[in-house]
């Protein structure tokens, strides 16, 4: 009888574990849908915004200033929103970001003046960090070995949304008051996304065994207990309802912890590679027209082809990481080296076929590199909280987006190949930085930094 009871208990334990694993898988798939809907809605509107603001009577300078202000708001808000999501929990921060972004796109749909257009960009510029918070949540739900695979699939699902969104947006613009229909449709998609997030089984979901997340989604943690609150002394479990000054203090402590951490080289690599890739794309259409006489339509097809290959690369990250035995550093080093080589091939291309070849493999190397740098940030600095780390990383990328157009403009004065040539130099510098810090990533202690 005792043996039978032990067998039943064992079967029950396995059943519970299997049920938990299935629930976690459903949760992760729902987050893929969140990423898809986010970029699907955004990509409906973004390609049409310059046309709309010019139709309102704004000059090119005013349109550029408003675009720059959005980038600057993203630069400063990403770190704070990421840290805030660590403090109040992923559920409430994700819902707040989606709903406030929906408000921004709703205001965009009512913008009949340049001033209203600028005001509508404020809530989006501050709170449009849905993808970063979703990635932070994914990093806590899955085992560390599976993180690159899951991140790759999440990026692939988001990219599919970015490919399909402009098609629907282009169709809606043909209607009477097309831009306003598009903006309201985008806001509706964000509301749908918020409903999806609200209905996720937060009370049942738990991190996978072996993952580095510390969130508890148990029934007694319905307020989404703040990440590592007991260990870090940030807040003690009131979630969203904690006082604002306690939340602010906890956010500042997290930012200070990251500033004093040993992550500077990872962020330097991310910055250099981001600028290098942005320089490659900065004058892509114009350079192809000047160098090979191809029409902008061909460049558009080539970029769409690259985006589709990027989706495929995200789906193949699982087998690739297994080939590399889950050595993220080595995969990042090789993908960055390949990116540098391919940009050099594009720069020295003598025919359009060499450009197509470089674009084909560049779609794979850049997608893999973006996923690996995020995984390396979380692996080396996981003790700081994934939301904070991803927020700082997004700020680094925002700085790259500000710096790259300036460098591209200067390099363009010398040659159509000037921007990508400069990108090759920056990519080489990133590879040198990685090699200089190789010991940190390859030593046994390096893999344990996140547990200290």
How many E-type strands? 0
Q: Estimate the strand proportion.
A: under 5%
Q: Over the alpha carbons, how many angstroms does the gyration radius reach?
A: 23 Å
Supply the number of helical segments: 18
Give the assembly state of these chains.
Answer: single chain
**Inertia-based shape:** globular
Considering DSSP H and I runs of 4 or more, what fraction of the residues is helical?
over 70%
Give the uncertain stretches in residue-range form.
Answer: 1-10, 12-17, 204-241, 444-452
Helix and strand content put the structural class at mainly alpha
CATH architecture of the largest domain: Up-down Bundle
Q: Tell me the name of the CATH homologous superfamily of the largest domain.
A: MFS general substrate transporter like domains
Pfam family, one: MFS_1
Domain Major facilitator superfamily (MFS) profile: 27-441
Transmembrane segments: 31-49, 61-81, 93-119, 154-173, 179-200, 262-281, 301-321, 342-364
Membrane topology: Multi-pass membrane protein
């Amino acid at each position: 009888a005792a043996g039978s009871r032990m067998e039943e208990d064992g079967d029950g334990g396995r059943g519970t574990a299997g049920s938990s694993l299935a629930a976690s898988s459903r949760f992760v798939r729902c987050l893929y849908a969140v990423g898809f809907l986010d970029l699907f809605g955004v990509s409906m509107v973004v390609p049409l915004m310059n046309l709309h603001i010019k139709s309102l009577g704004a000059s090119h300078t005013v349109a550029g200033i408003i675009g720059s202000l959005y980038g600057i708001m993203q630069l400063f808000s990403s770190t704070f929103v990421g840290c805030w999501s660590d403090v109040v929990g992923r559920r409430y921060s994700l819902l707040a970001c989606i709903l406030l972004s929906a408000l921004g796109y709703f205001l965009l749909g009512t913008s009949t003046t340049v001033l209203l257009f600028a005001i509508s960009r404020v809530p989006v510029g501050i709170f449009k960090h849905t993808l970063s918070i979703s990635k932070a949540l994914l990093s806590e739900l899955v085992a560390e070995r599976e993180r690159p695979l899951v991140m790759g699939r999440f990026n692939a699902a988001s990219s599919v949304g970015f490919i399909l969104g402009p098609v629907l947006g282009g169709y809606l613009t043909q209607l009477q008051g097309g831009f306003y229909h598009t903006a309201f449709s985008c806001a509706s998609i964000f509301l749908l996304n918020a409903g999806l997030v609200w209905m996720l089984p937060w009370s049942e979901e738990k991190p996978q065994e072996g993952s580095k997340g510390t969130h508890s989604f148990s029934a007694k943690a319905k307020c989404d207990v703040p990440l590592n609150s007991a260990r870090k002394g940030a807040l003690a479990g009131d979630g969203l309802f904690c006082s604002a000054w306690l939340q602010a203090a906890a956010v500042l402590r997290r930012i200070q912890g990251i500033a004093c951490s040993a992550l500077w080289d990872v962020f330097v690599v991310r910055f250099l590679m981001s600028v290098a890739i942005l320089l490659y794309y900065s004058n892509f259409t114009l350079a192809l027209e000047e160098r090979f006489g191809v029409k902008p339509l061909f460049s558009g097809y080539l970029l769409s082809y690259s985006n589709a290959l990027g989706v495929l690369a995200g789906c193949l990250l699982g087998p690739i990481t297994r080939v590399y035995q889950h050595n993220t550093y080595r995969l990042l080093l090789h993908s960055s080296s390949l990116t540098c080589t391919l940009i050099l091939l594009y720069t020295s291309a003598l025919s359009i076929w060499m450009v197509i070849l470089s674009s084909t493999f560049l779609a794979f190397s850049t997608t893999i590199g973006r996923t690996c740098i995020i995984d390396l940030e979380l692996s080396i600095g996981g003790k700081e909280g994934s939301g904070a780390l991803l927020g700082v990383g997004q700020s680094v990328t925002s700085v790259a987006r500000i710096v790259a157009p300036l460098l591209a403009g200067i390099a363009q004065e010398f040659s159509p190949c000037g921007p990508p040539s400069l990108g090759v130099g920056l990519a080489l510098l990133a590879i040198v930085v990685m090699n200089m810090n190789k010991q940190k990533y390859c030593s046994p202690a390096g893999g344990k930094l996140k547990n200290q």
